[in-house]
Amino acid sequence: FTEQSLLNILKNQNNAFRKHYCYNDLIKFYYKYRNDYPETVYKCMKLCIEDIKSLPDVETSYINQQIEAVSNLYSYDLEKRAQRIKEIKERGFRANIPAFDKITMLFFYEKDYEAAIQYCKMAIEYGQDYDLKYTKRIERFKRKRAIEEKRLYGTKLQHCD
User: Fold this and answer.
1) Residue 154: DSSP 8-state
2) What would the DSSP string read from start to end of 73-128?
3) What does the pLDDT read at residue 110?
4) Of the candidates 102, 86, 118, which has an alpha carbon nearest to the alpha carbon of residue 25?
5) Torsion angle defined by CA atoms of residues 16, 101, 31 and 41, in that order, rounded to the nearest 10 degrees
6) Please, which pLDDT band fits residue 31 given cuts at 50, 70 and 90?
């Protein structure tokens, strides 16, 4: 029932910014049940990828909403309004994006270290590397990849990362 409700909310959402938060709710739901229902892993991965692909639209939607709010707030102070709009555009959409956290860990659990590393790099590009979280994950994933390759092939393969 919860899954269907969340899917309906997502389906009926037209605003990219609000849709992002619907994705977050579904991703959290599927990730929670990943060990109980194997199909939820792939549903979660799919939604993470969709959310990440939608980030440019999310940012545009967010900026437009913020500009509209500022325009209403500073309708009589054109200088202040212009200054705030400039700040909004420079800052952009800077929020926590759980899709990066979940997708990197899901690929890690699937032992797809290359995909996990690529999504960590994307997270860093989107300003998500708080406390070097993704930088540390990349190093950890590279170590695990090397151990796995040594186990499989008996020698440490060289990667061009």
Assistant:
1) S
2) HTTT-HHHHHHHHHHHHHH------HHHHHHHHHHHHTT-HHHHHHHHHHHHHTT-
3) 93
4) 102
5) 90
6) very high
